[in-house]
Structures are given as C-alpha cells and as structure tokens.
Amino acid sequence: MLVGDFAQLGAVGAGGAFSMLIDDRETPPELSEARRFVEAWERQASAELRAGSPGAVDAYLGHGRVTEGNRDEMLAACYAAWKADVEAGKSSLMLAVDNATVAELNRLARAERVAAGMVADDGLALSDGSVAGVGDVVVARCNDRHLRLADGEWVRNRDRFLVTATHEDGAMTVRAIDRDGEVLLPAGYVAEHVELGYAGTVFSAQGRTVATAHALVGVGMTREALYVGATRAREANRL
C-alpha cells in the first residue's frame, strides 16, 4: 500500500508517479480531516491552501500569521520569531525554498549563538560553505550504513545531530537529536555531506510536525511549497 499526498511537493528529481497511480484508481481512499492544527480556522485554511484557493491567504492574513518586508527584514524576522519559540521550549522550524536562503538563516543562527557563548567559534568546514563547532546543530545529507549510532541504527539523510567534539583530522563526534546515541562522522563525510541544521528547505520538512513553524515566502514560490511551509506546525504557522 502506498500512502502520500499528490498535492504536496514531489521528488526533487524525477517524480509524478504517485499522482499517476491516484488517477488510475476509481475511488482511492482519501484523508478528509486535518488533525494536526490546534486552531479550527487553520484546519480549514490548510485544506483551501492545498486546493489552491486564493481565499486561503486571506485567512492567514486575517489571523496575523503574515509579516511582510524586504529580504533582509524578513530574514531577521524569521530568525527572531524562531529563536523566541525555541527559547520558550517549543519545537520549531525555520523554512525556505532554496538552499541559499537556508544557508543565510543558518549562518545568522550560528553567529548569534557564538556571540552568546553557546557555540564554539572555531570548527570544521561543512558542505554548505559554513563552519560548525561544538554546540552547533548539524544535519546529515547522505545515507551511510557504515556509520552506526550506539543503538545500531545507521546515519540517514536529514538526521539531526548536536556536535559534541571536533577533531584535528576533520572528523566530528555528534549526538543524535531525534534518536539515541553518538557517532563519529569521518572527515570526508563532514566535508561533503554535513550542513548546519537550524533552518531547512520546505522539501526537508515534509512529514515533520512541530509546535511552530516560520516559513520565508518570496516571489516564485509554488503553491505546493507554500502549502508545506504553512502546515508543519500544530500551534502556529507563520509566513
């Protein structure tokens, strides 16, 4: 049995097979009610947004979920809102469509953490052009069955880790955030497949559920990307 949503983002590479399979069935079973959201209006608005109804945007505007401004202002606003939620003990996401914007948000988060003494200033060069030191949150971008955590599980694409040590040979010791155990990531893996993990693309957020989410919206953002960015959180999705 295949389960999914043809109205969300497809694969980064080739895709479209799921929609084809749906079209091939006369009466495919379909989820009719969203249960993630605390607010009743957001359940309805999310369904309208999924269907591409322009009226869905009015609901987010009317409930104060949209902030507007130039790019620099919105980068700062996105980070500030996410930071406030994290410091309040909430699980939260910073989201953008493209890798370049994600990298900017990640660098902003790291710089403030270094300034606050929460993260080591020096560290190792990562695949996204940034640096990560002890205390940083990083994300793996490649499956590797040879890299095993203490519980026997292997490192998977999109796993999040907290850096606990960096080594002179370029390797990095990290502790899993969403699972159990530590693992030593070799220098080659760190340089080619590790990125800062404070922000992520909307593609990386599909399937996740958090308390709050803050998505950076710009010209050219597709309906599918907007839908994912506006529906990851239970309590509040902000654009």
Structure description:
With 239 residues, this protein is α/β, with parallel strands linked by helices. It is built from eight helices and 13 strands. The longest helix is centred in the N-terminal third of the chain and has 17 residues.
How many helical stretches?
8
Q: How far is the first residue's CA from the last residue's CA?
A: 34 Å
Q: Which runs of at least 5 residues are low in confidence (pLDDT < 50)? A: none
Portion of residues within helices? 25-40%
Radius of gyration: 19 Å
Beta content comes to: 15-25%
Task: Give the strand order, joined by hyphens, for the main sheet.
Answer: 9-8-7-4-10
- The sequence of SSEs as H and E is HHHHEHEEEEEEEEHEEHEHE
Provide mean pLDDT, rounded.
89
Look at the helices and sheets and give the structural class: alpha/beta
According to DSSP, the number of beta strands is: 13
Present the secondary structure layout.
Blueprint: H1 17-24, H2 40-50, H3 55-62, H4 71-87, E1 92-96, H5 99-115, E2 124-125, E3 131-132, E4 137-140, E5 144-148, E6 154-155, E7 160-166, E8 172-176, E9 182-185, H6 187-193, E10 194-196, E11 199-201, H7 202-205, E12 210-215, H8 223-229, E13 233-238
Parallel strand pairs: 1-11, 1-12, 12-13
Antiparallel strand pairs: 2-3, 4-7, 4-10, 5-6, 7-8, 8-9
Helix pairs in contact: 2-3, 4-5
Short description:
The chain has 239 residues and is of the alpha/beta class. It contains eight helices and 13 strands. The radius of gyration is 19 Å and the shape is globular.
What key phrases describe this protein's structure?
single chain, 239 residues, alpha/beta, 5-stranded antiparallel β-sheet, 4-stranded parallel β-sheet, 33% helix
